[in-house]
Amino acid sequence: MISFSLNGKTVTTDVPSETPLLWVVRDVFQLKGSKFGCGVGLCGACTMHVEGEAVRTCILAIEDVADKNVTTIEGLGTREDPHPLQESWVAQSVPQCGYCQSGQIMSAAALLSQNPKPTDTDIDAAMKGNICRCGTYGRIRQAIHATANAGEKS
Ligand code: FES
Ligand code: FES
Q1: pLDDT computed for residue 125 by the predictor
Q2: Cα distances (angstroms) measured from residue 50 to each of 62, 79, 87, 98
Q3: Alpha helices in 25-119 (DSSP H)
Q4: Of the residues 8, 50, 146, 150, which has the fewest C-beta atoms closer than 10 A?
Q5: Pocket mutation for ligand 2, best pick of 132, 139, 140, 141 (most atoms within 8 Å of C-beta)
């Protein structure tokens, strides 16, 4: 049995210890916001936070998050109480098909928590592992800057 914190709540699972975290979150705990894209750590669709760091959960064994804090897009914000990035994402009309976007937002949230006022270069470096087949990179940048600027004013 492996226990960990999922969006602030302690959960336990008896899946094999090598099962990837993404599988556990989607199939066992039925949180479907994190997506399966490449399955080999190259596209970023599966990005969650583990202890506040953006990680690729398709290649992270569940045993490696035992007793750690995992946050998914569902834990970042809700429709009723969205994260500032999610508000900016809507305001900037970032999502196209939407498939990559929860991973994009999780990477952006980890960036802003470490660097509240990133430059374009900082954003490109932090986001380079998140692939978008719809090509929303320009709007993602705008939304991250808008969130950073709003945070600066408040
Ligand atoms: S599905 Fe995990 S990086 Fe692509
Ligand atoms: S919005 Fe379609 S893959 Fe990014």
Answers
A1: 97
A2: 11, 23, 23, 23
A3: 73-76, 84-91, 101-114
A4: 8
A5: 132
Pairing mode, strands 47-50 and 9-13:
unpaired
pTM above 0.90, yes or no: yes
For 12-29, what is each residue's pLDDT tens digit?
999 999 999 999 999 999
For the chain, which residues score pLDDT lower than 50?
A: none
Contact 20, 62 (CB under 8 A): yes
Does the beta carbon of 37 lie inside 6 Å of ligand 1?
yes
- Nearest CA, atom 4, ligand 2: 132
With b meaning 16 or more CB within 10 Å and e meaning fewer, what string describes 63-75? eebeeeebbbbbb
26 lines ligand 1 (CB under 6 A): no
- Name beta bridge partners: 70: 6, 50
Task: Report CA 152 to chain centroid distance, whole Å.
Answer: 22
